[in-house]
Amino acid sequence: MFLAIAWGSSFLIMKRGLRSFDYQQIGALRIAFAWFLASLIALRQFRHMKKRDVWPLLLVGIFGNGIPYFLFPLAITRLDSGLVGVFNSMVPLFTMITGALLFALPVTRKQAIGVFIGLAGAVILLQPDTSGDQNMFYAGYAIAASLCYALSVNIIARYLSHLKSIAITSLSLLYVGPLCIVYLFASTNFVGIMQTDPIAWTNLGLIAVLGMVNSALAIIAFNVLIKEASPLFASSVTYLIPLVALAWGVADGENIGWIHVIGMMIILLGVYLVNRKRKWRKKEPATHLHAVSNDD
């Protein structure tokens, strides 16, 4: 429930942040704050990293944190935050697709049907907005961000299950956090905004919450789910994320129509079929990696 509320609320927070900052600054700030908190609470985890972990952690930093944190606020510049949250619910579908294509995970017929149903729901959401207020081309950025999350989920399950969740979070953010701080101060007008925009500090505080609570702490909890259950089960938290995102959107006066609700329900039906293969149970430590690789 914490993950659903945290991640479902993230889209409205990004929308608020756009009042002062552009999408690139929001992405860089979010990563910087997440890296700062994760590093503080995981200083002793660095000694657990092995040479073989370098590339998987780099990929998790790029696909699990780096790219999506820029793509989602970019999508929100032209789409309602609630609608962007609905597209995030496609993560389990992409988790299964990338698992099958890149990690040789078996796919059942029901799961394949679930993928097609979920994608059909996405197509419904991609229908042009008759009001002209939203540019559905930007939905592609939200979909691409969800695909990046799915890649990260499978990489963690396959290559990093021997590390503690807090270590995965802090070490992967190490690759992108410092770079984002340098970019923020060297290549953007962040300092000028903070000096001239009267609501900049308020919005910076919101992004700090986004980075430290909705990102760092939530990622640690999410990685626990990946390690203790499976990548598909962990990504199924996205059942509730669109509901929370849409609720915040309605509360903020966004135009949420029946087409959005129908599309979301179809996507979630597909997600349900994808996750229905077996009853999830905690793996035994000695066989966890094998189980993740072959049971999903």
Features:
single chain; 296 residues; globular; disordered C terminus
Could you walk me through the main structural features you see in this protein, from its secondary elements to its overall organization?
By secondary structure, the protein is mostly helical. The chain has one domain. The chain is 73% helix and 0% strand. The protein has 14 helices and no strands. The longest helix is centred in the C-terminal third of the chain and has 29 residues, at 200-228. The chain is globular and about 55 Å long. The model is unreliable at 278-296 (pLDDT under 50).
Shape: globular
Structural class: mainly alpha
Domain module count: 1
Strand portion: under 5%
Q: How many β-strand stretches?
A: 0
Percent of residues in helices? over 70%
Distance between the termini: 23 Å
Largest sheet at a glance? none
What's the average pLDDT?
A: 83
Q: In DSSP terms, counting alpha (H) and pi (I) runs of 4 or more, how many helices?
A: 14
Low-confidence stretches: 278-296
